[in-house]
Design a protein that fits this description.
By secondary structure, the chain is α/β, with parallel strands linked by helices. The strands form 5 sheets. Strands 3-5-2-1-8-9-10 form a 7-stranded parallel sheet, sandwiched between helices. Strands 16-12-11-17-18-20-19 form a 7-stranded mixed sheet, sandwiched between helices. A 5-stranded antiparallel sheet has the order 22-21-25-24-23. Strand 8, helix 4 and strand 9 form a beta-alpha-beta unit.
Length: about 800
């Protein structure tokens, strides 16, 4: 966007020859103080002089000018382009162009594209009623530049082809023509309220709410960009201020997704990034097909974040082209998913403009697409390979046993924790040796242990290693521990704790700063739930309790092996019962290695429940080192000290010095020792049996988890298939209704034809009767004339002889 137009706004309008009525309605509804220039381009016959400017001037509330030469744009004026010239916008001027192109003029695509380059986000493009698809490619350029696209409601358009040719991801507003003028005014004049709101902390709080809801961090976006796109949703929801929009979000949480779609610019095309698709065509797909040919002849591909389907169909075309005559011998399933239901509905149609296929190889377009009223339709053999479905990467299960996963330019919008979770989904989804393709600005660095680069330049990776268990739950700001099967434990470092690192350049939130402070405290901090499982623990607590392995999710009483478990359990239980402070603390001796033996003081704090009367769900342990031997804590019972190793040694020495046992009692003691030894042996055997049973149960539990995850992934696949079948069923029902209507129309026409046939038969009989009567009269007249003795001559009005 050029500097001289960065602060200027512009509206460009496109329509075909049949849109004169829509243009008249549009200019008649413009407010008188419209704050931007408007350029109108309409397809007209170049051989005839255009009177469009004069026609619009009679209805317009703003001054109308027909552009005769290069002209500077002025605020509030309407500029009409001549019928025989093309036009570009540059440097705040309209520049007319002449060429020998026989296509309709002016070119709306050329107008939109040049205006997008000059005005960027300050541009609003409007497409009214019209035939064909001129303007679709230009509207995509407007979206890429961050501008706004408004189309007339196709249901009210006289000719809906032009507004319908745009993918829903490229459209910001759909409105009736009489509403568009006021809509544009609101978009252009609503900046002040948002700007004032952004001067407070309200906007940052709002973006943090969006981050918490979706996992997408927009705080690194340019404020002007965020405000301009936020304004679109405020206008759409009739929210006069940001505070009012926040209240609307509270009432309508589904608005979050519409807002996120507005923030994200999702513009795609067939075979986008030709070098990547050439590599997939020459190297990746042939190898995957060979693997499938050697196996079950099944090829499974997932296009995650497919938008309006161009990428999915591009892959389907390459697969169909690579298999050729073998296509019917393979089972090919290409799952194409996106969060936007409108984009998925558009993709299912399989109809695209010529501009969307600009990057596609011409030979593939000729073989796998059919022309349809100036557009291109995906052929049925390619359409049948793709299964479209709505899917949320942050909350839904993945599809299993994939050979290839494409997820391009999606991860860049996710925070690091959500990126990691999505990569975990892909690691679970891909088979060993499967291929992952990411966008140019995306890598597998958040989860590097399961992917090896195949082509670092094109960001193609191969999945390797053992299966990964499916991460549980939806993504959040808290770090997600990776749950791996025992056979892949070597890929993770059990001594490290996952830590959330925000994207570079973004200010850290108060929660992140608090988390860093807790992790770096010299005092041990641990949060324990009612099952004694560790929810959070910092490195100091691990060191003080003598824990040398990963602790999050484990049982603290078993992890802290060198700490008296009974005493530790007692003070934790006292915390859950919220007893007095004396019963919720104790001094413990940490044994183990004599060189590492030390004493710690543990104090328990009960975490307040969310609602009054609820049970305490977690307690916080504060662990501090005790440098010198303190007096026994009042909470310690008299026998508590005897449970400590030092106390037991002192007690044993004292008992030995107290008295020597009698010889007779020695035999009794030996018998007791033997009995205790036998009992101890029984306990050891029982403990081994218990350990073996525990191991068996653990293995069974792991198998159950794997089976459950496979069923969950299979259920996701079935759900997507069902969604696709429902869409196909709806299409069939629509076709059936159309056929029924056609049959009804044919029946009506047949009845009408039958009725007319009877009328014609009656008319024919009447004419035949008249002919016979006339013939009889003629014969009678001829006989009379033949018997008249006098000469008779019959002439017409001009004197010519008749008979």
């Amino acid at each position: 966007m050029t500097n001289d137009t960065a602060s200027t706004q512009l509206v460009v309008v496109g329509s075909s020859a049949g849109g004169i009525e829509a243009l008249q309605t549009f200019v008649s509804t413009l407010p008188r103080d419209f704050p931007a220039p408007i350029v109108i381009a309409q397809h007209l016959d170049p051989k005839r002089p255009s009177h469009l400017g004069e026609i619009l001037e009679r209805r317009s509330t703003a001054p109308v000018k027909t552009v005769l030469d290069n002209e500077a744009l002025a605020q509030g004026a309407v500029y009409v382009i001549p019928s025989d010239r093309n036009v570009v916008i540059a440097d705040g001027h309209i520049k007319l162009q002449s060429d020998g192109d026989v296509r309709p003029k002016p070119s709306i695509n050329r107008l939109f594209s040049s205006a997008a380059e000059a005005y960027g986000e300050a541009l609003i493009a409007v497409i009214l009623t019209g035939t064909g698809s001129d303007g679709a490619a230009g509207a995509l350029e407007v979206k890429k530049a961050g501008g706004t696209v408004v189309i007339q409601n196709p249901a009210t358009a006289t000719y809906p082809s032009m507004p319908q040719s745009l993918a829903p991801t490229a459209v910001d507003f759909i409105a009736n023509v009489e509403e568009i003028g006021q809509l544009l005014y609101d978009l252009l004049t609503g900046a002040s309220a948002v700007t004032q709101a952004s001067e407070t902390k309200l906007l940052r709080t709002f973006l943090n709410d969006v981050h918490e809801f979706s996992g997408l961090d927009f705080t690194t976006y340019k404020p002007a960009t965020i405000l301009r796109r936020l304004k679109r949703r405020m206008v759409a929801t009739n929210s006069p201020s940001l505070d009012g929009y926040l209240r609307y979000l509270e009432r309508q949480p589904e608005e979050y997704q519409r807002l996120i779609s507005t923030f994200l610019i999702k513009v795609t095309e067939f075979f986008r990034d030709r070098e990547l698709f050439n590599t997939l065509r020459r190297e990746t797909l042939p190898r995957l097909i060979e693997d499938a040919r050697a196996g079950s002849k099944e090829l499974r591909i997932w296009s995650a974040g497919c938008a309006t389907g161009e990428e999915a169909y591009s892959i389907a075309v390459l697969v169909a082209d690579a298999l050729g005559d073998e296509l019917n011998q393979f089972t090919v399933r290409i799952f194409a998913t996106d969060l936007d239901p409108q984009a998925i509905a558009f993709a299912r149609r399989g109809i695209y403009s010529r501009a969307a296929l600009a990057s596609a190889p011409p030979e593939l377009v000729e073989r796998y697409f059919s022309q349809l009223d100036g557009d291109f339709e995906v052929q049925k053999r390619v359409r049948g390979l793709v299964i479209f479905g709505q899917h949320d990467l942050g909350r839904r299960a993945p599809f299993p046993h994939m050979d290839l996963v494409l997820c391009r330019n999606v991860l860049i919008y996710f925070a690091s924790d959500l990126q990691k979770r999505v990569l975990q989904l892909f690691a679970y989804s891909l088979r060993n040796g499967g291929v992952l393709v990411l966008g140019k600005a995306e890598t597998t660095s958040p989860l590097p242990d399961f992917f090896s680069p195949v082509n670092s330049l094109l960001h193609i990776y191969r999945r390797y290693g053992e299966p990964l268990l499916l991460p549980k739950g939806a993504a959040s700001l808290d770090p997600l521990p990776i749950q791996v099967a025992p056979s892949v434990a070597q890929f993770t470092n059990p001594g490290t704790r996952p830590h959330y690192n925000p994207p570079a350049g973004r200010p850290r939130t108060s929660f992140e700063r608090l988390g860093d402070a807790v992790l770096s405290l010299p005092v041990g901090i641990a949060i324990i739930d009612r099952r004694y499982d560790v929810l959070t623990i910092n490195p100091a607590a691990l060191r003080l309790l003598g824990i040398h392995r990963s602790a999050v999710g484990g049982d603290l009483l078993h992890l802290a092996e060198d700490v008296p478990q009974k005493l530790l359990r007692r003070i934790i239980d006292a915390g859950f019962r919220n007893l007095n402070e004396r019963e919720m603390q104790a001094t413990l001796e940490v044994g183990g290695d004599p060189e590492e033996a030390h004493r710690v003081h543990v104090r328990v704090f009960a975490q307040a429940p969310q609602h009054e009367g609820d049970a305490i769900e977690a307690v916080v342990l504060q662990i501090t080192s005790v440098a010198t031997e303190p007096n026994p804590t009042p909470a310690d019972p008299p026998d508590a000290q005897t449970t400590q190793p030092g106390a037991r040694k002192q007690k044993g020495a004292a008992s030995q010095q107290a008295a020597q046992p009698e010889p007779a009692s020695i035999a009794d003691l030996e018998q007791q020792i033997q009995a205790l030894t036998a009992v101890n042996r029984q306990y050891l055997d029982a403990n081994e049996d218990l350990a073996q049973a525990n191991l068996t149960l653990r293995q069974s539990n792991e198998e159950f988890l794997v089976t459950t995850e496979e069923l969950q992934a299979a259920s996701e696949e079935v759900e997507t298939l069902n969604e696709e079948l429902q869409a196909s069923n709806e299409e069939l029902e629509t076709l059936n209704e159309e056929l029924q209507a056609t049959v009804e129309e044919l029946n009506t026409a047949n009845d009408d034809l039958e009725s007319r046939s009877h009328e014609l038969q009656r008319a024919a009989l009447s004419l035949e009767e008249q002919r016979r009567t006339t013939e009889t009269e003629r014969e009678w007249l001829a006989a009379i004339l033949a018997n008249i003795a006098d000469a008779v001559l019959v002439i017409d009005a001009l004197g010519a002889t008749v008979q």
